[in-house]
From TrEMBL:
Pathway this chain belongs to: Amino-acid biosynthesis; L-lysine biosynthesis via DAP pathway; (S)-tetrahydrodipicolinate from L-aspartate: step 4/4
Assembly behavior: Homotetramer.
Function: Catalyzes the conversion of 4-hydroxy-tetrahydrodipicolinate (HTPA) to tetrahydrodipicolinate.
Organism for this UniProt entry: Pseudooceanicola lipolyticus
Entry's Gene Ontology molecular function annotations: 4-hydroxy-tetrahydrodipicolinate reductase; NAD binding; NADP binding; oxidoreductase activity, acting on CH or CH2 groups, NAD or NADP as acceptor
Name of the featured protein: 4-hydroxy-tetrahydrodipicolinate reductase
Catalytic activity field: (S)-2,3,4,5-tetrahydrodipicolinate + NADP(+) + H2O = (2S,4S)-4-hydroxy-2,3,4,5-tetrahydrodipicolinate + NADPH + H(+); (S)-2,3,4,5-tetrahydrodipicolinate + NAD(+) + H2O = (2S,4S)-4-hydroxy-2,3,4,5-tetrahydrodipicolinate + NADH + H(+)
Length: 269
């Protein structure tokens, strides 16, 4: 197993962190090389498997990411924007592939990944699933085919614990629609409606977010024209699809040149 790429999981105690741990531990293509949590977390110093309430995995949770990354070939990161920026710098020092599933990053934060990408592979996507990335390509194609007489709305639903809105996936879909229309999303996005807003501005791409229960993720891209509607939909029922996509990205990135990539590159779409 030692010749298999070593994987470090950041935010190891989170839902995605634990999902990634189970997937990596069960894989015959990679090995679990490390687990990172924030300083002061109760899991620090514990065996990751035991902290999760299962069998020991032989990997202790640490709050020193540089030490963990030094012996790894890839980092799977579904944490928070500022933490991700720190991890990007350290992963670049270790020349480890940095797979970023963190959402809620601003344009400025995304731009700050560029220095790290000069030294290592960064694969960043708001959603790692095959289905969503196919939906992006379909959204772009439909938006290109329909003129501005068709209004575009992106509606997303997630569990009550999600902290950012719109979701990273919704923004990816909005970007795809804007690209299809040949416009910049920042110039046409309508991300908040409340009160007397007036009539809808033609050409805008609207976003709506629903939060509740344990919804893994649902996304609709609606093209609403006179007398007809086209609705493209993706429903996720198991967040393991995101973990599988992240692991696929980590393996794909092993022989790639430094730079920034996304799941469209990984999946060859």
């Amino acid at each position: 197993m030692t010749h298999h790429p070593g994987i470090v999981i950041t935010g190891a105690s989170g839902r995605m962190g634990q999902m990634l741990t189970r997937l990596v531990s069960d894989s015959d293509k990679v090995r679990l090389a490390g687990a990172v949590e924030r300083a002061g977390h109760a899991w620090i110093g514990q065996d990751l498997g035991e902290a999760m309430g299962s069998a020991p995995l032989g990997v202790k949770v640490t709050d020193d990411p540089l030490e963990a990354f030094a012996s790894a070939q890839a980092v799977l990161d579904f944490t928070a924007p500022e933490a991700t920026l720190e991890f990007a710098e350290l992963a670049a020092q270790a020349r480890a592939v940095h797979v970023i599933g963190t959402t809620g990053m601003t344009e400025d934060q995304i731009a700050r990944l560029a220095p790290a990408a000069r030294h290592a592979v960064i694969i960043r996507a708001g959603n790692m699933s095959l289905g969503v990335n196919l939906l992006m390509q379909l959204t772009k194609k439909v938006a290109r085919a329909l003129d501005a007489e068709f209004d575009i709305e992106v509606v997303e639903s997630h569990h009550r614990m999600k902290v950012d809105a719109p979701s990273g996936t919704a923004l990816m879909l909005g970007e795809a629609a804007a690209e299809g229309r040949g416009v910049a999303l920042g110039e046409v996005a309508d991300r908040g409606r409340d009160g007397i807003t007036g009539a809808r501005t033609g050409g805008d791409i609207g976003f709506s977010a629903i939060r509740g229960g344990d919804v893994v993720g649902e996304h609709d891209v609606m093209f609403l024209g006179p007398g007809e509607r086209i609705i493209l939909r993706h429903v996720a029922t198991d967040r393991a699809i995101f973990a599988r996509g992240a692991l696929k990205a980590a393996l794909w990135g092993q022989d790639k040149a430094p730079g920034q990539y996304d799941m469209v590159d990984v999946l060859g779409l």
